[in-house]
Amino acid sequence: MMKSIPTLLLLLFLQAACTTTPDTQAESKATAVVSELAKTSQSWNGVNLPEYPKGQPKITILHIKIPAGTQLDTHHHPVINAGVLLSGQLTVVAKDGQKLHLRAGDPIVELVNTAHYGINEGNTPAEIIVFYAGTADLPITVIEPKSDNSPH
User: How far apart are the C-alpha atoms of 17 and 37, rounded to whole Å?
Assistant: First the structure.
């Protein structure tokens, strides 16, 4: 009888360890959900992205807030960059007049070495996270000189 008590206790312990509650079962079945937002070798206007520049890589991640009714300065990016609009709306206008209208949740693979500007035509701030894949010696944004033909 003395040998059967430890065996019984061991069996009870193993049964308890192997038994899960409904909450534990639900948690163990939960898995991460991955949604691909963009996968491309072209910017939003269909132009092939350039090769990555040579040199020490430098990744920059910006959280940009653009107030309602604000138009950004005309600029270009010498490095590949992509982002996701978190909230609001944003229109990107290229120098040739092409436009991309973004709403919250939309991804963008930006133009590289092409002048453009963004404008928030909405009534709420636009927030975007942008990832830049550059090098230590390159700027991520270059403001274009203002001219008489400027859309500003």
Answer: 41
